[in-house]
Amino acid sequence: MTQEPTQRYARVLSIAGSDSGGGAGIQADLKTFAALGCYGMTAITALTAQNTLGVSGIHGVPPDFLRAQIQAVVEDIGVDAVKLGMLHAPEVVEVVAWAIDRYQLKNVVLDPVMVATSGDRLIAAETVQVLVRELFPRAVVVTPNLDEAALLIGRAIEGVDALDGAADELLALGAKAVLLKGGHLPGNEVVDVLLQAGGERKRLASGRIESRNLHGTGCTLSSAIAAHLALGATLPEAVERARAYILGAMAAGADVKIGAGHGPLNHGFAPVPTHRLPLKAG
To answer: pTM here?
Structure first.
């Protein structure tokens, strides 16, 4: 007689766009979840025709079908954490907000994907306000880079000294916590700021890794945070562990050539076995 299972995997759902080149989006998220020992699932918001040189086309998934994907996954398998990526239209944002409320989804990490590494705009201007209104309050953390943060607060962020003030402004938009990524600033050191509601602020600094292969860094970092939250880490712990993972993935992929443009990270540089949790944990 077969014994009833008593364990399950740590489950992470990515609601994001597909990158046909494999370096960012859904593809990067699934690689990250697997590398960190989580069971990855997807609800695809859009298809992109994309490679290391840029984005040549975007085909949005109908909102009703996005809703169907989320329902299929959540109602059968369940979710411990959610990573939100490319949400290109207001009606797509509204479906995601509905799903978070309907299923009481927790550990929601919002990467407000607006501009690709290549500089391509990935979100309609009218979507930004809806994204802020509907999803900032529903996410446990928002993870903009400097370009995305500048679009959100309406001004450029110039220099490391400006990071704290910009993080304050982003938090004031309704977020529970903000991880403002300073990687686009010049200098030999990369400084990120994690600011949580209530005022807890943490600066995270690391040496810059020189590499052309930085496509998908934002997707990878946010999905790594979601993975560690699914495994039970606190938000500051999840951010620190995710940063350590992405620095390793960047360093391990720096001397590899994939495509003629910005190549991917080495997501599988140090994979771990899929973690098991007690089945009764939900």
So the answer is: 0.96
